[in-house]
Amino acid sequence: MANGKTTTDFPFLQHSRSVAHVNNAKVMFIMRGAPGSGKSSLSKKLKEVYKKAVSCSADDYYMQNGVYVFDPLQHKTAHLYCHDLAARACDNQRHILIIDNTNIRQWEMRYYLDLAREHNYDVVLVEPKTPWRHNIDELARRNKHKVPREVIQRKLDTFEEMVPLYYGWFLNARDSQTLLQLGRYYLTECLRKFPELNRLIRKDRSEGVVDLFPGHDKLHCTAKFCDRGKVMNSLQYSRRDVIRDSCGKAFHLDIIGFMVTPQTLGARVKLNKAMLSLYDNDDEMTDEMVGALGAMSLKAGAQDKRSRKGKHSAKDQALFCPTYGCGSRAHITLGCAPGVRASQTGFDQMEIIECEQQAIRDPTLAKTVKNETAYFRYYGNGRSAIYLDKSVQYSTLFTGFY
Fold first, then answer.
1. What are the C-alpha distances in Å from 289 to residues 195, 294, 348, 351?
2. DSSP state of 83
3. In the chain, fewer beta carbons within 10 Å around the N or the C end?
4. pTM of the model
C-alpha cells in the first residue's frame, strides 16, 4: 500500500468506464520513474488489461535469447530502437502504446510527445505509487537489472516535473467528428434563421460552413491552461491529488448547446460536480467586456422592437441561462475564422453569457426562433446561441496535452 492506495490504483486499470474509453481511443501511456520503482509491474498490468497494446522499451534492445545483456556503449542505439518501435506502431494505427522507459527528464520524453501530437494520441503520464519509489536503498535492492546505486540516486536527483500546456477532457476521433458535424448543422441553421448574422460572418463570401470555421480532428474541453507551468498556480494545480488521481479517467461530458460569432464556433459544456473539482479557469468578465456588451445591448434592442416586453419567466431563465458562475466558460472550440486563435471561443462564450443575463432583464434584446430540436437566439452584433432541447453526451478522457 502507498498512502492508503494500492500500487495499481489507477482509473485506467480499475475503472471499467475508463478502460472502455481507452479501448475506443488512441492513448499513449508514458511510464516515469527510477529503476526498481515498479514501472515494469505497472507496464505488465497495462498489457494484461489492454491485450493489444504495443510496448516500447529500450531494455528490449538488450535482450539476447531471453537474457538481459546491458552494454553502456549501445545506450543511444537502444533508445533509437525504441523510437522506431513507437513510430511504426503509430504509423500502423495501433491504438494503445506503452512507453516503458525511466523518462526522468523532459527531453527524454519529447520524441514520444511529438509523436503523440502528430498522430492524435492522448498522453497519460504514469508514475508508480509504490511506497519505496523514492527510497534509494529499496530501489537499489529491487531493480532487476542491477543498476548501480549512484546511477539511481542521480535519476532521483534529476527527476523533472512535467506540467502540460493544458489539462482537459478529450474526445476520441470518432466522437470528435460526430460533434463537429452536429455543430456545423446548427451553424447552417443559425445562418439561415438570422440574415444579419449570416452577413456578418460571410461578408459576401460563398464558402461552405467548413471553410468559414475550419475545425480540428481532435476535440477537447480545457480544464486548466498551464502553459507548461508558466501560468500562476499551474504547478500547484498539477500537484493536487485529485488531478493526479484523475489523469487517465473517463468522464461523461454534456453538450447543452452551441454558440456562433463571426470569430468562433463552439459547443457549450455543462460540468458535473466531479468535473468542477478539476476545473480551474477564469470565468469572470472584465470591465472592458461588460462595457462593450452594454453598447451591444442598446443596438440589439433597437434592432428588434417586435420582441415581447417584460421579464422572462423562471422556465425561460433556466432555458436561456444554462450556465453561470464557476464552470460557465467550459466549452469546446469547433472552429475558428482564419487568423483567430482557439482561446477566443472562451471570451466569446463569456460575452454571450452576459448577453443572456441582460436579455433575462429585457427580452427585447434577443430574437428567438424554435425548430424541432433546439431554440436559436440572436443577441445582435454577431452573437448567437443555440439551446438544445436535450443535451448530447460524449465519453472523454481527462489528461494533459503536452
1. 25, 9, 10, 7
2. H
3. N
4. 0.91
